[in-house]
Design goal:
This protein has 466 residues and is of the alpha/beta class. The chain has three domains: 72 residues, no CATH class; 322 residues, Thiamin diphosphate (ThDP)-binding fold, Pyr/PP domains (Rossmann fold, 3-Layer(aba) Sandwich), CATH 3.40.50.970; 37 residues. The chain is built from 14 helices and ten strands. The strands form three sheets. The chain has a five-stranded parallel sheet, with helices on both faces. A three-stranded antiparallel sheet has the order 1-2-3, covered by helices on one side. A two-stranded antiparallel ribbon has the order 7-8. Helix 8 links the parallel strand 5 and strand 6. The protein is globular, with a radius of gyration of 29 Å.
């Protein structure tokens, strides 16, 4: 005869433990488990299958105490010390987080700190910063001339890209926003390929399907840039988790502005990375404006750095116009990510000297004097220039030659990009499906028929064909 089993809940203790009475063939047994940790309960019941005899009173107290301690271990809210004082924590009582600085605006070293970079490396980084600056100036003008449809400059934020990139391993993955072109230059992406992307010609790695400055380069571990705000953060967190599983020593760095930090995806990504100990650096460029909204209208707290602490991440604030400081904090953060497999947050305090984009006119919400002061007095290019001159590593003559060469490099690449045709119009149907469905075949054929009939009304000469 088969055994008959009955179960009922007999008590719910104050610490969240349930005692279940199980009656099998007339014998009463007791099973107690902690309702707090569902995952642990599932593992315990599925792997051990143990049923305990109903405990005596003293033993029951001991078991409850044991489970209380386990709950104490699992729940942070039960780890908090108890107080009889009712006090709110006022933001004004918490000191503002200082920004780490190595290089002062006048080119001197703060407290005689070591830049930890060789002279040759500093010179090379400065030359690349000048190159990016020249690239931005010419491409901004190109948009104004109608040569390209859109552009976003990096003026004032060059130290963020070059300082952080120099501290990373080339195998580390980058999930950028849209002011990290310097990372691509630092990793060796040719100017011609960057211009091919802006012009959308057939040499563009993205086949001309993205807006200008939405770079991507798989060989450089640089994920394609997306226009929607903050979508790169969850992508980066997931990638970091995957890299952690592989265990090959790579990390992820994702860049975003302080405005993007207000998006919900930022919360999801940081919480995911912190709870799963993902090797990722959340790099916030706090440049003062979310398009036209100044920081004092974006948040009431002390910037973004404290949010990292709220998620349980090691966090640091750095002078984002200081090439040496950005390098130092990124190198330290990478070490924590790689060797301790945990996330970090860096808030770089910088300033967006240029317009938000070619669709923006920043003179409508800030003064020219404000921009001029940041650019000339504390800007990253001026600061490194002052340092190099003070060290006898640079001169006015070399500066003139560097500017001339940088401009020539961009002009040469621009002329090349304009000479390259775009892919055939019908290529827009490629790479959507492994095998093109009938519905898209019909659309492709209809488009071809239309262009063959009315092609004179379209700039088809820019393409290799229909």
């Amino acid at each position: 005869m088969a055994s008959r089993i009955f179960a009922s809940i007999s008590r719910l203790s104050s610490n969240g433990c349930i005692t279940v009475n199980i009656i099998k063939s007339g014998h009463k047994l007791g099973l107690q488990f902690d309702t707090i940790s569902v995952a642990n309960n599932t593992r315990a019941l599925s792997t051990s299958g143990r049923v305990f005899q109903e405990p005596q009173k003293d033993h029951h107290h001991h078991v409850n105490e044991r489970h209380h301690n386990e709950a104490h271990h699992h729940l942070p809210n039960q780890c908090a010390p108890i107080s009889s004082q009712l006090n709110f924590i006022e933001p004004s009582s918490i000191p503002r987080v200082p920004a780490y600085r190595v290089l002062n605006p006048d080119g001197s070293l703060n407290d005689d700190l070591d830049p930890t970079l060789t002279d040759d490396k500093i010179v090379s980084m400065y030359e690349q910063m000048v190159q990016l600056n020249a690239f931005d100036k010419i491409m901004f003008d190109s948009q104004r001339q109608g040569r390209i449809s859109f552009y976003m400059t990096n003026f004032g934020e060059e130290a963020v890209a070059f300082g952080s990139a120099a501290a990373l391993d080339g195998r580390d993955w980058i999930f950028a926003q849209y002011r990290e072109a310097g990372i691509l230059l630092q990793r060796g992406m040719p100017l011609k390929l960057m211009l091919a992307q802006c012009y959308g010609n057939k040499e563009d790695l993205g086949k001309g399907r993205q807006m200008p400055i939405h770079y991507g380069n798989r060989s450089l571990n640089f994920a394609p840039i997306s226009s929607p705000l903050t979508v790169q953060l969850p992508q980066a967190a997931g990638t970091a988790y995957a890299l952690k599983q592989r265990g090959e020593g790579q990390i992820v760095v994702t860049y975003f502005g302080e405005g993007a930090a207000s998006e919900g995806d930022a919360h999801a990504a940081m919480n995911f990375a912190a709870t799963l100990d993902c090797p990722i650096i959340f790099f916030c460029r706090n440049n003062g404006y979310a398009i036209s909204t100044p920081t004092n209208e974006q948040y009431a707290s002390d910037g973004i750095v404290n949010r990292g602490l709220g998620y349980g991440m090691s966090s640091v604030r750095v002078d984002g116009n200081d090439l040496f400081a950005v390098y130092a904090v990124t190198r330290r953060a990478r070490h924590l990510c790689q060797h301790e497999s945990r996330p970090c947050l860096i808030e770089a305090m910088t300033y967006r000297v240029g317009h938000h984009s070619t669709s923006d006119d920043s003179s409508a919400y800030r003064s020219a004097d404000e921009v001029r002061q940041w650019e000339q007095e504390v800007g990253p290019l001026k600061r490194v220039y002052n340092y190099l001159c003070a060290q006898g590593l640079w001169s006015e003559e070399r500066q003139t030659a560097c500017l001339k060469e940088a401009r020539a490099n961009v002009i040469e690449a621009l002329n090349w990009a304009e000479s390259i045709k775009k892919l055939p119009v019908s290529s827009m149907f490629d790479d959507v499906y492994d095998e093109l469905p009938d519905s898209l075949r019909r659309q492709r054929d209809e488009l071809k028929e239309h262009l063959e009939k009315y092609g004179k009304h379209y700039p088809l000469a820019e393409h290799e064909g229909i």
